[in-house]
Amino acid sequence: MVDINLPFISLLQMGVKMVAHRIQQYQATTNETTVVHTKYGQVKGVKRKTIYNHNFYAFEGVPYAKPPIGELRFRAPQSPDPWTGVRDCTSSGNVPLQKHFVLGIIQGSEDCLYLNIYVKQLKSDKPLPVMVWIYGGGFRFGEASRDIYAPDYFMERDIVLVSVNYRLGALGFLSLSDPDLHVPGNTGLKDQLLALRWIQENITSFNGDLNNVTMFGESAGAASTHLLMLAPKAQDLFHKAILQSGTALCSWVEQEPKNRAYLLAAELGYRGENIDKDVLSYLSNVSASKLIRVENELRQPHERDERVFFPFTPVVEPYESELGLLTKPFKDLLITTWSNEIPLLIGFTADEGILHHYETVKNPHLVNELGDCVAVLPKIVKQECDMQKCKELGLRLREAHFGPVEPQYSKHLYQYLELLGYRHFLVDIQRTLLARSAYASHMPTYLYRFAFDSPHFNHSRTLNSGYCIRGVCHADDLSYIFYNANAYKLPSNCGEFKTIQRMIGMWTAFAATGNPNCTEIEPIQWQPVETNDVENAQPKCLNIGEKLEFITFPHKHLKTWIRLFTNDNLF
C-alpha cells in the first residue's frame, strides 16, 4: 500500500491553488436576491447555482454574536446588536483568525462570529430539517466557507444547511483559573452554543424546522458536537448528531490548561509572574495575529513525543459559573447526559493514520525511536500505571502492530500510520460506542466505515501524502459531502458521483428521520449497533466503499487497544 519512493505533490502548490480559487469560485450567482427578517434585523441573500446547476438561496456572513474583540477577547460570546436597514449577506463573511495549515501565513479576523445559511426553497408545505455543520481542524484552523465546505451536494435535497464559524486556538480555548476574570475556557464551544440558540430564534424565517435540528461535524467538529451533547446547556438545541472521525474522548481533545496561558505570554515577551490577572492583561493587549503566530511553539518536548498536536483545546473548566459549559470530566458526563435520548450516527475512515504521513516522512525518527511504544499509550492509561506497567502495555502494542521486532521507518511506515489511526481515532470511537451501549442502548447508534479509495478525489489523502500512497485518509469523507476548491464536476456514472449520492442520501435521511436508510443504499439495510457486538469489540458497521456492505468491524487490533484500559478509565 505504501510506496515511499514516489515523489510528493507540492503542498505549497496545493495551498496556492486553494487560495487563488477563492477569487474564481462561485461566480455562478443569479441576479435574484431576497430579504429575510431575523430577530436582529433584515438580511439579504442571493440565489446561486450549484456545480450541477441546481438553484439554492445563500445567506452568508450573518452575525450571530457581537464581534469578540476588545474586552470580549477570550470571553464568552454575546448576542449581536440589532441593526437597521437590510444587511448584505450575499457573499462570504470573515473567517476566524488562524495560521494557514499549508502556507503558514496568518489569515482571517478576530471579528469572525458569522454563520452561513443555505436552503433550496424558502417556502414549502412543511418546514425543512436543519443541518448545522461544525468544521474540524484541531481547534486551531478551519473555516465555514464555500472554498472548503460548499453546500452544492446538500442543495439537491430538501434541507436547510447552516455552517458556523467559531474562534480557534488561544482566542477560542485559553483557560484561566481566576474566576474574577471570566475566562474559564471553551469559548469556541460557547460560540457554537450561541449559534445554536440563534438558529432556534431565527431558522423558521429560512424555512427551517426548529424542532428538527441535526448537528454534525468532522474531527474537531465531531468532538465539538459530542462535547455539546454532554453539555446541559445545549439540551433541546439539536435533536440528532453525526460524528465523523472524532468524539469527546479522543486523546487530542482535552488538554491540561495549567500554565498554558502563562507559557504563551512568556513566548510573546511577558516577563512578569504567573498571575492570571497580569497574564490576561498582557495577552489582551498583544495583536491577535502575533498571538496566533506563536501559539503552536508551546508544545513541550514530552508533548511532541506523545503526539500532542494542539496547545489550546477544550478543557474541564476550573470553576462553576453562570457562563460555564463543561465543568465536570467529559467521561463522567457520558453517564447522565441528555443526549443519551437522541439518535447518533458515528464513523471513521479506513486509514485515519495517513493524516500523519507527511510529518512522518519528514521525521523518520518518529518511527525509529518509538522503542517500547510507551509514548503512544493513551494518556488516561499512562496516568494510572507505574513505569513498569506502562512498558508492559507498550510492548503489547508493539507486538500487535510490528511483531517481535523494533519498529523501523524503512520497513514499518504503514504499520506506524495504522497505529496512529488507532491511537487518535479508532479506540476512542469504540469507547464512545461502549458508553452509548451502556447508557443509551434504547436509542439507535449507527456506525460506518468510509472506505472509498478514489485515485483522484480523496483530497485529504492527496494533501497529506501527495500521490505516494493509496488509502482513505482522515477527512477523505468530506470530499463526498461538500464541494471544495479542489473538486470539479463529475460524470454521473463514476464511482465518485455515486458515493456522493449515497453519502448525501444517508446523511439527509438521518437528519430528517433519525434513520439513515434511504433509496440510494437499497437493498442494504443499515442496522444500529448491538450491545453484545460492541462489548466484544466487533460492532457491525456500514462499509462505504466501491460497493456498500454491512460488515463486522474489520480492524483486528481493536481488542488489544481496548484491553489497555481498566473498567474505571474505559468510559
CATH-defined superfamily: Alpha/Beta hydrolase fold, catalytic domain
Radius of gyration: 23 Å
- Residue share in helix: 25-40%
The whole-number mean of residue pLDDT values reads 92
Estimated structural class: alpha/beta
CATH topology: Rossmann fold
Question: Which class in CATH terms?
Answer: Alpha Beta
Gross CATH architecture: 3-Layer(aba) Sandwich
Instruction: Say how many strands there are.
Output: 15
How many domains make up the 3D coordinates?
1
Determine the strand fraction and express it as a percent band.
Answer: 15-25%
How many DSSP H or I helices? 20
Shape: globular
Q: N-to-C terminal Cα separation, in Å?
A: 34 Å
Structure at a glance:
The protein is α/β, with parallel strands linked by helices and 571 residues long. The protein contains 20 helices and 15 strands. The chain is 32% helix and 16% strand.
Description:
By secondary structure, the chain is α/β, with parallel strands linked by helices. It has one domain (11-570): 3-Layer(aba) Sandwich (Rossmann fold), CATH 3.40.50. It has 20 helices and 15 strands. Helix 5 links the parallel strand 10 (208-218) and strand 11 (240-244). It is globular, with a radius of gyration of 23 Å.
